[in-house]
Amino acid sequence: MDMPFPIRKIIHVDMDAFYASVEQLDNPELRGRALAVGGGEKRGVVAAASYEARKFGVRSAMSGFLAKKKCPHLIFVRPRFERYTEISKKIRNIFYEYTDLVEPLSLDEAYLDVTRNKKGNPSATMLASEIRQRIFEETGLTASAGISINKFIAKVASDYNKPNGQKTVNPDEVTAFLENLPIGKFYGVGRVTEERMYQLGIFTGRELKEKTREYLTEHFGKSGTFYYNVVRGIHTSEVKPGRIAKSVGAEHTFFENLVSEVFMEEKLHDIASELERRLKKKKAAGKTVTLKIKYSDFTLQTRSKTLPYFISDKALIMEAVTELLYQEKLKNSVRLLGISLANLNTDAENKVKKQVAVQLKFDF
């Protein structure tokens, strides 16, 4: 298959229900049980749910009250992020045995570029299988993987055979894979965008592909160009180890500490509006959204999410920030909130470069 862009061998590794699986690993009594990390029957938000709980509709960012209503026998456990970080480091060390091009997205997922790898193995599929086996042997946890020609397709593919599976999309399979993919499965299409696409008659990649670039940008702004490209298998972003820290942000310290996520969400709308104004002034957009939380005891916490496309408008910023806010339970009352965007389109590494047409035949 001839493609007017570089073809790489990318693996996206995603741990299966990571936080919940760690809790079940450390406590045998929890294995096979419907489990939620974080949350509670009266207050709090679910940070992660075991697959046993997901069968009842329990999901991350759901209130503990609703989760218990959906699954009356649900067990809540407190999150232990030091333990999750400890295991995440072990997993990352396994990745580095195969390649130095590792881009972590969070504690439980990462991209690996194995086009040239330390094992000298030309099959990315075999490498992914070996990495997953190593993770299981050394941590007792399962992982899923997606393998393809770029980060976007690998990310989508890793969700295809979850849990404890993998999916390879070879170069000659890309077109059919993306055309048949339900629009909600496209990485970067959230629930709000999915509903908007449904209203426009876009249900799969095939309908998305029928829309012109102009049509998509008219309805989805800058994200429209991203959708136009990825449905054609075009996503030239490289795996970037060690992201640069340049960012644009806004924050606010409160006269009275906040104790409810609902009140915090209201304040974040104002902060997001200010951030949007600063981004427009700098003519900048970014991919990595970070929520900054300073507690009443002055301890600081940051939560980040990297998107597959650049954003600068308030609606998309809030969509990501809201997810981060409910990602895990707050440790205390909050005196400061901040939002920043990094991995900017104004960074030298993100400026558009002229792409040379490359035809590579890989054994995936």
What would your notes on this structure say?
By secondary structure, the protein is of the alpha+beta class. The protein has four domains: 10-16 and 82-170, 2-Layer Sandwich (Alpha-Beta Plaits), CATH 3.30.70; 18-81, MutS, DNA mismatch repair protein, domain I; 180-230, 5' to 3' exonuclease, C-terminal subdomain (DNA polymerase, domain 1, Orthogonal Bundle); 247-350, DNA polymerase, Y-family, little finger domain (Dna Ligase, domain 1, 2-Layer Sandwich), CATH 3.30.1490.100. It is 36% helix and 22% strand. The protein has 13 helices and twelve strands. It has helices at residues 18-26, 51-54, 64-70, 81-96, 124-139, 151-158, 174-179, 191-199, 205-210, 213-220, 223-230, 261-282, 314-325; strands spanning 10-15, 35-38, 46-49, 75-77, 102-106, 109-113, 143-148, 166-168, 247-258, 286-295, 300-311, 334-344. The strands form three sheets. A five-stranded mixed sheet has the order 5-6-1-7-8. Helix 12 (261-282) packs antiparallel against helix 13 (314-325). The longest helix has 22 residues, at 261-282. It is globular, with a radius of gyration of 21 Å. Residues 348-361 have low confidence and may be disordered.
Topology:
Elements: E1 10-15, H1 18-26, E2 35-38, E3 46-49, H2 51-54, H3 64-70, E4 75-77, H4 81-96, E5 102-106, E6 109-113, H5 124-139, E7 143-148, H6 151-158, E8 166-168, H7 174-179, H8 191-199, H9 205-210, H10 213-220, H11 223-230, E9 247-258, H12 261-282, E10 286-295, E11 300-311, H13 314-325, E12 334-344
Parallel strand pairs: 2-4, 7-8
Antiparallel strand pairs: 1-6, 1-7, 2-3, 5-6, 9-12, 10-11, 10-12
